Every structure is written in structure tokens, then in C-alpha cells.
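Q: What would this chain look like folded?
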Amino acid sequence: MTAAYDVVVAGGGPTGTAAALALAAGGRSVLLAHAPGGPPALGEALPAATRMLLHDLGVAATVPGAGHLPCYGNRSAWGSDVLGSVDSINDPYGPGWHLDRALFDRRMREAAAVAGVDVRAATVRPGTRHPDGTWTVSLRGPHPPGGVRCRWLVDATGRRAAIATTHGARRLVGDRLVALHLTLGPADAADGTTLVEAAPDGWWYSALLPDRRLLLAFFTDADLPGARPDGETFRRRLAATDPTAARAAPHGRLPAPPRAPAHSARLDRVHGDGWTAAGDAAAAFDPLSSQGILTALHTGRAAGLAVHAHLDGDPHALTRYGADLAGITAAYRRNHAAYYGLEQRWPDRPFWQRRHAGPGRV
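A: My prediction, written as C-alpha cells:
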């Protein structure tokens, strides 16, 4: 017999687990499928205010827990050569965290399993949508392949939005931002801050990882010369910085960096016939916003609550969810324009001209 669930959540990161926890709290039967393997997410910081959201999800006692580094503040050279700072001592919630993402995600999935969610290492392949509104989906993973039946699908597959785009949603891309990144180490464990430094063709980010290595990343547009993933260009641009170069100096000659997508994007609609998208699948933001995991947790929980209400017969639950995401995106657009607008030292450079014009269609 084919197993049956109220909801199958595709994606076992913060978005998917938040959705699964919210659904399980409402008494729904949930299968959470997380695709094994893939490159690990590195260098992510979690703001202290996330404690309230973790409390709402019922996991504040176990997540994030030990194994992460406290983040005591943020330093930035943005809009001038003067290095400014924001100290966590002024934050009522205390310091944030430099995350070990694999550990954070695993603890979130463990919390979901404790809450009654069926957690499996598998990739979801949507199959048949039946006349009664249910789905038959296949699961592919290290275990024998199989199929399950469900009433609803939550797409938490990240920027791919694998389920939503397969079923009619369009991905709207707002810019061409990419990240050239290196993990260096060991680093100076005394500096527990993040550092952001603007440059003529982009901006630099560096932060400690929980294993005491240093993440170093340069963000620029994919079509600009600085986006070439060769070591010489990367080293030359780093040498033109000030605090970032000083932070990287102890690590000697740097190798060529790999490149990863970091662009802003969103779906033209975040729910459809039998599915709802959340997190990066619904809207992915410029990393400068520092909203990645916080938005993932918020939208995952909101999607779970909306799907629960919809299955309970609320005809407006998904519309309200869509309006919530539209409000988050509108606030992001305003903040994006304000933050990039603070940097006016290179008005003739394409990277900054594009940012001053706004974040495209997102």
C-alpha cells in the first residue's frame, strides 16, 4: 500500500523544517524529504532576534545549541574609508551566531522528527495529481525507491524552486550577483565579528566559521571582469582593500576561488494547484540583506500555517500567505535601495550604477 500524508515537504533546510514543524504542531501528518549530499552552506550568521522565532517553532531549547560561534557584532567599510561597527552589546537579544550550517540543519530535522514528522533522506519527484486533489509523488534516495500519496506539497528546494517551476510558476531574476569564495584557516579566533567592505566592482565579506577557519567572499556581477574565478584577479582585487586584506594577510598566497550564485530572484506566484513555495524557492535575496536564514525560518513557518489553515477549509489562507511574502519582498526592495545608496564613492562603475537603479524585478 502507498503511504499517505497530509503534506510532503521537499527540502530539509531551515525553510522545510520550519514548515514541517508548524504543520506537525497543527496535528498534520508530514513527510519531510531532504536531499542528501550537495555543497555545504558556509559562513552564515544568524541574528539574535531569531531566538523568538525558534521559540515559536518550539525548538529554542535545542536549536541552535552548542557547536556554533557567537557573533559579537558587525564591522563595515561602507560609504567611506572609515570602519564602522555595530556591537551586540546593544542588542536586547544578545549576540547572534556564526553557524555550522550542517549542524544547525541536522538539529532542526531532529526536532522535526521528535515532533512526529517522518524525516527521510530523499529527493521528491512530483508525479500524478489525481481528480480528488491528492498527489502521488516518488522518493529517490539511498533507500529503495518508493511512492507516497499526499494532499499538498511544500516546495522548500531553494533557488531551484523545483516543484513550483515544474507546475507553472516563473522565476524572475533581479540581478547577476555571484560570490567568489574561499575558506582559509586557521584564523584569528579573537575576532568574532563579520566584516563587510565595499569595493569599486562589488563588496567583500569575511567571518569566522565554527571550526575557526575564515570565510572570505567577494560579491560582484557575473558579467564583470572581477567575476572570473582565477586566483590572480582575486588576489589583485583583495590587495586593493584595507581591513579585508589585513584580515586575510596571515593566510599567505590565496588559490583560485570557486564561484556560486548569489542573485536576487522570486517566483511570480508562490502557491498553485496543490503546492506552496517558501524560503529561497519563493524569494531569494541579496546576501547583503543578512536575511537568509531568518527569512527561511519565517516563510517556512508561515507556509506551514497557511497550508494547515487551507486544508482546514480557510479559502483565504494562501492568499494571506502570498500577501505576507509580497510585503517581505517590498521591504527588501526598500532596504536594498537604502543600503546600496549609502555607497556613492564609485558612481561611474557598472556594479554600483545597477544597484543605485534598484534591484530589478525582484
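The radius of gyration is 21 Å.
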